């Protein structure tokens, strides 16, 4: 047999977990079974040792509760003053989080981790302050008692009969780097209590009668020992996995906790957390949206949402799944996810109820196979109170359904009487006729209306049609059987039809949401501009969730958040809103209303995440005054938020690509400009320098004619330089959009004359022909820009045509435009180069491969012509004897030619 070789590679997830902790502070928790065991004393003792070792230690907050030995230990430490504020007429003092962050010690002492901060603080709970200190790289020592751990809250309440309100999520304890159990025996603790070392005398006497009973202390001590042992075991397993140390791993366990709208669901989730901890297994909390989901009232839906939030706080994965068969859907999910333990609540119901309606627990037990199923009886103090569903969930409700059902029964009675008048043997048919209003009521209004209709339909059938007539007595035993069967069929079909209606409502609602999501996704994909995306997203989310929406994005320069989209339009945020939005952006976590951070804000702020990071923040404020989003609404919100974030990222990427293209074009322009400068400045400068040097070296030796020739060279090359620099300046004006074109009535023939006058020396070696009619209408153009464009075009014609050839300028009206052409008799423009002829610094090569010109003149000419609404096109003459440039210039409005 082949030998089994163990995989000695470190676990990647464990390594990633270790890497993620780098840069964070270390958290050490001193855990006790009860108040007074010495947690704060031990924390201060160890901190004093660290201080003697040279570690920078400050006291962020320590509650001495008047204990002298504890107060003595605080001497010598730097103590950060508490932040005081006025709350309901009283001055309250809390840890000054900002002061500690600014001081930034190596180690901060933060007592009572489960403490609830005063209203208006940045975080509702002190453990959240500690998380911010850890994120800033500050080590923290803190204390907590076992009764403050969320998953053990119900167990402690059972043991002590006292419900502790201040709790922390189990995840805080799980993520602690070290837990030290501060332990003492129950007898020693009771002795300390009697001596007044825990509470003052009057308070100590009350504690001895309730919380501090020997049995309670023993049970709490056992819980603390177990919790500390679990943490140590988890640390050992993590270390072994990270360093590829072989060992027996507890693999494959998975706990599934199934909840509903019952108030005991929160307790069930905590029990599931404890079971998962004992099994070292992941926990999933599942809610099945069955046929009853749409009939739930807002109280039940909010309770489900609250239970899901508790599950998330406890580190569980939360799942909502639609399904008609509750037990079947649970088992199907459990088998797909390899669940080994199912935990479900069981209500106290009669056998008759279970026979009529079935039992989910019984079905799970029967069909679970190898999956362990644990049913937990709902506690008696958690009484579920059913509320009436809202109008949105059941629009055809209220008294109208009963009025409609009564009318349907009355119509059926009349139809039955008409049928009986036709035939006395139609009694069975009349009975079946009464099933019709039952079915209609069930499909139209649900189960309650169906049962109402069934009951009164059968009473009407008995009263009007079963002998003896007009009494509720049934004389014939056979009629008793018919009546009973009819009653059963009516109730059964009514129930079945009501279920079909509920399923149809669920399907219709889901289809509507899916359709809205599809349209939303398509709309986001079709928008390119960021402002359009933000407006559409704000409007759509506000419409679908009935909430006010504001979207904030960081300013590119300052990186400060600013409102970029909102519906209804709103550009005002309160100071609390700004703080919550900033926190959400910086920490990538929810903040604001109903969140754990800055809950005093008006809005709930959620990060808009993509695979590459957070692109912005969305703020939401319910219009209907409700505090929570239901799980279904939260799923929809998450989908819309994700789609919006992706659309924003796409738009920003497009903008960055455009900017990169502009930069690339600018780089190309810079390279071309440098190349042009190196050639087109060097050549004329060399000519000027050569001529000037020759003249200086031969003063008095050259005759007048020779000297004149040299000076002409200097002048021509200087003019060439002037044209080049002028084109550069004109191009920079075009790029900057600073032309300031002012179209006015222009005589084209005068402008052509002015341009040729400026080019008189350049075109002296060519034959200039002008074909401009005297009755040519005035053009609407900027005369200076048009003149410069013509100069550039004439210069191009001179440059590319042989000496002595013709350059022809023609003009003619056509519709509301003047067509002006400049044609030369040069080699023409190669077809492959026509698309690039107006590109900046693009030069057509001559046949002898020499480079002529700077490549700016034509680009500047087109920019000038387009600035006042004209166009410029290039081509070759029809007889292929040269190039032709065609300008179209608007005719002045009052002179358009038909």
CATH superfamily placement of the largest domain: P-loop containing nucleotide triphosphate hydrolases
**Which strand-content bin applies to the residues?**
15-25%
Total count of domains:
5
CATH fold annotation of the largest domain = Rossmann fold
Round the Cα radius of gyration to an integer and report it. Answer: 44 Å
Unreliable stretches, pLDDT < 50, 5 or more residues? 1-6, 247-251, 380-396, 847-852
Terminal CA distance: 100 Å
CATH class category label of the largest domain: Alpha Beta
What is the SS-derived class? alpha/beta
Mean pLDDT: 79
Layout of secondary structure:
Layout: H1 12-20, E1 27-32, H2 39-52, E2 57-61, H3 68-73, E3 78-79, E4 83-87, E5 90-94, H4 97-103, E6 107-110, H5 126-135, E7 139-145, H6 153-160, H7 170-174, E8 178-182, H8 186-194, H9 201-209, H10 214-242, E9 255-259, H11 265-279, E10 283-289, H12 298-313, E11 317-322, H13 326-336, E12 341-346, H14 351-357, H15 360-367, E13 372-377, H16 399-422, H17 427-433, H18 435-445, H19 447-465, H20 477-526, H21 530-545, E14 547-554, E15 561-567, H22 575-587, E16 591-592, E17 604-610, E18 613-622, H23 631-697, H24 704-736, E19 744-746, H25 748-758, E20 767-771, E21 779-781, H26 783-800, E22 806-814, E23 817-823, H27 857-867, E24 871-876, E25 883-890
Parallel strand pairs: 1-7, 1-8, 2-3, 2-6, 6-7, 9-10, 9-12, 10-11, 12-13, 20-22
Antiparallel strand pairs: 4-5, 14-15, 14-18, 16-17, 17-18, 19-21, 22-23, 23-25, 24-25
Helix pairs in contact: 1-10, 11-12, 13-15, 16-18, 16-19, 18-19, 18-20, 19-20, 20-21, 20-23, 21-23, 23-24, 24-27, 25-26, 26-27
